[in-house]
Structures are given as structure tokens and as C-alpha cells.
Amino acid sequence: MGKLMALILLGAGLALVGERFLTLRERMNAYREVESVESQNCHLIEGIENGSEDIDILPSGLAFISNGLKYPGMPDLAPDEPGRIFLMDLNEQNPRVQELNISDGFDKASFNPHGMSTFIDKDQTVYLYVVNHPHMDSTVEIFKFEEQQRSLVYLKTIKHELLKSVNDIVVLGPEQFYATRDHYFTNFFLVLLELFMDLRWTQVLFYSPKEVKVVARGFSSANGITISLDKKYIYVADVSDKNIHVMKIHDNWDLTQLKVIQLDTLVDNLTVDPDTGDILAGCHPNAIKLLMYNTEDPPGSEALRIRNALSEKPMISTMYANNGSVLQGSSVASVYRGKLLIGTVFHKALYCEL
Ligand SMILES: *[C@@H]1O[C@H](CO)[C@@H](O)[C@H](O)[C@H]1NC(C)=O
Ligand SMILES: *[C@@H]1O[C@H](CO)[C@@H](O)[C@H](O)[C@H]1NC(C)=O
Ligand SMILES: *[C@@H]1O[C@H](CO)[C@@H](O)[C@H](O)[C@H]1NC(C)=O
Ligand SMILES: *[C@@H]1O[C@H](CO)[C@@H](O)[C@H](O)[C@H]1NC(C)=O
């Protein structure tokens, strides 16, 4: 009797694991292939090869590009090279990238830049906030940007017990930002378990020197975050749920959910078109190909534009899609006056004239 019970339990356990495995493959879009949407007016950006995970463009047209992310489970083509930040001036006829010099006093050897966000103060000084994972920890580094010297002056590091597994930030004011936490556990195997069991323990945090708090929870894996042009709404990408949450900002910085825009692709980072307010999303059409990297059958890239996000029927269009033959693992799309930049987790970066 005991044996039979054990067999039944084992069978039920295996069925549960099997079922979880199938839903996980489904959620990761294992079966999706990309239909190409490409333009003659796109070319790869010279000088960027080992990732361009985040791109942030200033109102003046200067683009910051983060490079060299090392992230558990993701391919890494340059494991021995520390991360770098590049600058590209989109006002130029044929824009080229230039590496930014980082001032002394900052540990450049362990620099592992992830999400970035810029902040411009009353005096027009530009600050770059960078999520960093030195030795797989999570910190937010604040730099002052010196345009003439093409350099970043290191100012300070923010660490807090709630700022764990940080993916992305959006700066609201001096030392004040929202941050996404993309997984709950920090141990890689527990992270896999978390994804497998679909625990939904990831969050959005609000940080200020006076107060740090969780302002939204229940995401499968909260990833990119950005703010609407009127500063009233926050857009959060849930990468493993393949959707974008539109959230209202309250006076006390709490967030409440207004709606969810469901997509059929794993949404990584979000930006807003400064001219139209449209949401632009860098997406992974098939995440299994990203997680099980194979140069013969590489992960593709997809950049979407979402018009009228607040309306009943947002309009979704594909700005760019490629099966990985040109660009692999796109994580962000950003536009500036008819120019489009697409960044990737570990691969190259693309420049297009729209
Ligand atoms: C990318 O990484 C490879 C391997 O480390 C290195 O040889 C190459 O120079 C890197 N490319 C760039 C543009 O940094
Ligand atoms: C970067 O800084 C180093 C010293 O910190 C200096 O030697 C080098 O010339 C600087 N490069 C640029 C492009 O300014
Ligand atoms: C995503 O883009 C936004 C806006 O450009 C930026 O603030 C954020 O840091 C990016 N995050 C990641 C993880 O790429
Ligand atoms: C990707 O598309 C190109 C044509 O655009 C085709 O030549 C290539 O075989 C495709 N690669 C894969 C892995 O499907």
C-alpha cells in the first residue's frame, strides 16, 4: 500500500514538473520564429560587439550606450572585459561611438553596467545613473557627465537592502528613482526555480534618501521601467509575462495599475519617443534561444512601437525584426528625431534612419 502511494505521488510529481516545463517553454516562446521587418536604412554600429544592453538619449541627441553586461544565464562574448559606457552624437551625419572615460575613485575592473537613466538638474548639469552588478551584487552608481571632456566623473554609490537584483531604474529627481527587481532570489539555481514555479515575487521599488519602499509587486520578472512624457505614468515591462503594465504615479510615489498591454514577445527595456510619447520596446521574440545560446540558431531581435498606450486600443507596430542573422537578443530601442538605435544584451547595436 505504502509503495503504491509512493508511486502515485511520484507520478503526480513528475506530471507536475512536466506540465511546468511545458508552460515554461510556452511562456519563453520556444516555438516562435521571427518574420523579418528590416529596412535598407539600418546598419550595425562600428565598435560595439559585446553588448549594448541599455541606451539612453539626452534631449540634445547624445546617446549613452552601456556595454559588457555579465548576467547569470545570459550569453557573454567577452567574459574577461569589464563593462564600458559609450557615447554617440545623433546630430552627426554619420554618428560614431566613443568610449567615455570614467574618473578615478571608481572600480572600473568590476564595472558591470545594466540599466541606466539620465537626470538633468536646474543648472543643466547631466547626471548618469547606472545599475551596476560588481561581483554580482546590485548598486546604483551616480556619475556627472562632462560633455567637453567626454568623461564621467564618479560621484557616489547607492546601496540598500531593498535594492537587490536590480535591473533598471528611472530617475525622478536628485537621488530619487524607481527601480525594478527582476528576480527575488540572488542564487542562480533558486532564480531558475523561481521562474519555473512562477512565484511572482518581483517588485518595483521607490528610492529616495529619506524613504525606500516597495510600490508595486506581483510581477513575474519586472524588467525595463520608464516614465511617460507628462510624468504621470510609469511603464513597467514584465519580461516573462510578455506584457507592459501602465501604472499611475501618486503624490506619495505609490503606484497603482491602470492596465496591462499583452504582447507575444518577451519585453526587455522600454523607452518613450520624446516627440510622440509612444512606448518603444526592445524585445526577445524567443527567449529559449537566448537562454540556450547556439550560434547556428541564434536568438532574434524585435523592436515594437506602442501608440496610445492609455487608450482602449493601443496600436502596436513592429519597427524592426530580425531572426538573429544581423542582430541578436535586442534589449532596447530608442529614437531621436527620425533615428533609431537598437541595443542588445550581449551582441551588437543597430543604427537606423526612419
Ligand atoms: C568583444 O570581445 C572579444 C572577446 O573578448 C574581443 O576580442 C573584442 O575585441 C571585443 N570587441 C569590442 C568591440 O570591444
Ligand atoms: C582618459 O583618462 C586618462 C587618465 O585618467 C587619460 O590619460 C586619457 O587621455 C583620457 N582619455 C580621453 C579620451 O580623454
Ligand atoms: C531601459 O530604458 C530606460 C529609458 O531609456 C532606462 O532608464 C533604463 O535604465 C533601461 N534599462 C535597461 C535594463 O536596459
Ligand atoms: C535568417 O534569415 C535569413 C534571411 O533573412 C536566412 O538567410 C537565414 O537562413 C535565417 N536564419 C535562420 C537561423 O533561420
Automatic annotation (TrEMBL):
GO terms for molecular function: acyl-L-homoserine-lactone lactonohydrolase activity; arylesterase activity; metal ion binding; protein homodimerization activity. It is an enzyme of class 3 (hydrolase). Its cofactor is Ca(2+). Binds 2 calcium ions per subunit. Pfam families: Arylesterase. Keywords: Calcium, Disulfide bond, Glycoprotein, Hydrolase, Metal-binding, Signal. Capable of hydrolyzing lactones and a number of aromatic carboxylic acid esters. Homotrimer. This is Paraoxonase. It comes from Bos taurus.
